[in-house]
């Protein structure tokens, strides 16, 4: 059944084992060689920083020395010396007959240690970018849905596709946002992660190539690793996506699937412009790639209007290769475990069939609560957005006061800041911060390529302003008191 969706054929995909970074693309990322002397050290230092920051992916073939020298308007000897220094410092590897490839020094590769125990009860938890639900909102909703739940009690209660009325409400929500949708194009799932897992299980097989952003949502990356998929990463920075790199990656790798978070990207907070969405749609159509668009944060627009659905930018009849996933977790409450996907009707039928093998259907009570909250979203969402603006301002002010050497861009929406500490200290700092009563995740946890983003922290603004101010004060104190010379890098079992 899944084979009908596995396009293009495997033979057309597996003959491409890697990617090449074009000379003009690389030259656009590097500084002017004339800015500092010696030029080759200046260029090598900048390139190492780009690799550590994920802007240049690992295991990508670098351009030939002569081509890059021409693009940089410098001598070939300078480029040769730069490549030699990159190899010497571990940021490049060469293979006879295969050229030079980006790499990571061995001591930069983090170990993946699972934390078995949670943080102390008194710790301020900044590891999860997910808000709570006000008690009054939940109790009022429970009172309203109780009679509806009683009506469902005499029935078996199994709904593999989701409650019909909830599917209709989600479809109407897409239509209202500019993407005409029928209920039979909707599958209700136990959260967006469940939706992604079903998609990977149906459309991909072990060894298939998938494109992911770097950084990205760590649970999605873990799902792909468990499915034994081969990932090709494309960088996302504070300024957004490099669409030329995405287009060239789709063209070179010809992936089965690409997973993107264009709306207030987790963790950077970036919002993809409409014209870039259109270019990606066209590139994906050319390569026959399924686009899986994660819209879990799309409603959390704090400073700009919410964007229309990604698939609405497709030409008529051209959105069949786009699957959109969303959930209630970020806008309402993760405890509901209600998510959904929008896809072609036939694909929804196949996904529901796969779902039954492990899950006969979601909780009727949770789905009724979700239906009630969605019906009241225009009433509830403005107060949620105002709360997030207040908390974001409190976090930004605390960082400015206590950690002025750090830099960040204020995101136009979403739930977190992507802070640059200026030095690769995330792993020891997150370990030490826990001793000071703050649980927080370093940037490496969000990396699709291991070992990068050690100079980054994701800091959610999903808790009260006083707690955020106290958390930043504790982190600054931990940093001022000194970090251990080395610390085991950790990776907890999951992060929202």
Describe the fold and architecture:
By secondary structure, this protein is an alpha/beta fold. It has three domains: 2-105, Arc Repressor Mutant, subunit A (Orthogonal Bundle); 124-129 and 379-480, Aspartate Aminotransferase, domain 1 (Alpha-Beta Complex), CATH 3.90.1150.10; 135-375, Aspartate Aminotransferase, domain 2 (3-Layer(aba) Sandwich). It is 41% helix and 14% strand. The chain is built from 17 helices and 17 strands. The strands form five sheets. The protein has an eight-stranded mixed sheet with strand order 6-13-12-11-10-7-8-9, sandwiched between helices. The protein has a three-stranded antiparallel sheet with strand order 14-17-16, with helices on one face. Strands 1-2 form a two-stranded parallel sheet. Helix 2 (23-29) crosses helix 4 (65-72), helix 6 (135-152) packs across helix 14 and helix 7 (164-176) packs parallel to helix 14. The longest helix has 26 residues, at 377-402. The chain starts with 9 loop residues before the first helix and ends in a 16-residue tail after the last helix. Residues 1-17, 109-120 and 486-494 have low confidence and may be disordered.
């Amino acid at each position: 059944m899944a084979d009908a969706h596995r396009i293009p054929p495997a033979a057309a995909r597996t003959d491409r084992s890697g990617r090449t970074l074009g000379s003009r693309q690389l030259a656009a990322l590097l500084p002017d060689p004339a800015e500092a002397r010696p030029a080759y050290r200046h260029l090598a230092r900048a390139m190492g920083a780009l690799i550590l920051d994920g802007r240049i992916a690992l295991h990508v073939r670098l351009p030939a020395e002569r081509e890059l020298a021409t693009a940089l308007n410098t001598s070939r000897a300078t480029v040769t010396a730069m490549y030699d220094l990159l190899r010497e410092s571990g940021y490049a590897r060469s293979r006879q007959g295969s050229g030079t490839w980006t790499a990571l020094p061995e001591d930069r590769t983090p170990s993946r240690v699972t934390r078995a125990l949670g943080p102390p009860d008194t710790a301020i938890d900044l590891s999860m970018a997910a808000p709570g639900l006000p008690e009054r909102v939940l109790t009022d909703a429970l009172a309203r849905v109780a009679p509806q739940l009683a009506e469902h009690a005499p029935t078996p209660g199994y709904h593999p596709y989701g409650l019909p009325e909830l599917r209709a409400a989600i479809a109407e929500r897409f239509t209202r946002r500019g993407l005409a949708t029928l209920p039979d194009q909707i599958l209700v799932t136990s959260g967006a992660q469940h939706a992604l897992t079903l998609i990977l299980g149906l459309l991909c097989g072990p060894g298939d190539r998938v494109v992911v952003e770097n950084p990205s949502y760590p649970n999605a990356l873990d799902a792909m690793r468990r499915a034994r998929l081969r990932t090709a990463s494309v960088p996302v920075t504070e300024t957004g996506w490099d669409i030329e790199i995405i287009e060239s990656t789709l063209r070179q790798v010809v992936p089965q699937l690409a997973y993107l978070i264009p709306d207030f990207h987790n963790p950077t907070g970036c919002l993809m412009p409409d014209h870039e969405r259109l270019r990606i749609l066209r590139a994906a159509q050319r390569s026959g790639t399924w686009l899986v668009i994660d819209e879990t944060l799309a409603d959390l627009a704090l400073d700009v209007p919410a964007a229309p659905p990604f698939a609405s930018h497709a030409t008529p009849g051209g959105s069949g290769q786009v699957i959109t996933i969303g959930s209630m977790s970020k806008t309402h409450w993760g405890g509901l475990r209600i998510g959904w996907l929008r896809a072609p009707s036939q694909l929804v039928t196949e996904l529901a069939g796969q779902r039954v093998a492990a899950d006969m259907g979601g909780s009727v009570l949770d789905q009724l609560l979700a239906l009630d909250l969605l019906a009241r979203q225009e009433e509830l969402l403005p107060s949620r957005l105002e709360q997030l603006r207040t908390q974001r301002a409190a976090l930004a002010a605390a960082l400015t006061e206590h950690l002025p050497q750090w830099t960040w861009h204020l995101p136009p929406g979403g739930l977190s800041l992507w802070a640059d500490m200026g030095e690769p200290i995330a792993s020891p700092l997150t370990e030490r911060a826990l001793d000071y009563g703050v649980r927080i995740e370093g940037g490496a946890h969000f990396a699709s390529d291991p070992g990068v983003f050690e100079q980054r922290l994701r800091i959610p603004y999903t808790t009260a302003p006083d707690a955020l101010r106290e958390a930043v004060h504790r982190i600054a104190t931990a940093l001022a008191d000194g970090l251990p010379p080395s610390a085991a890098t950790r990776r907890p079992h999951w992060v929202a």
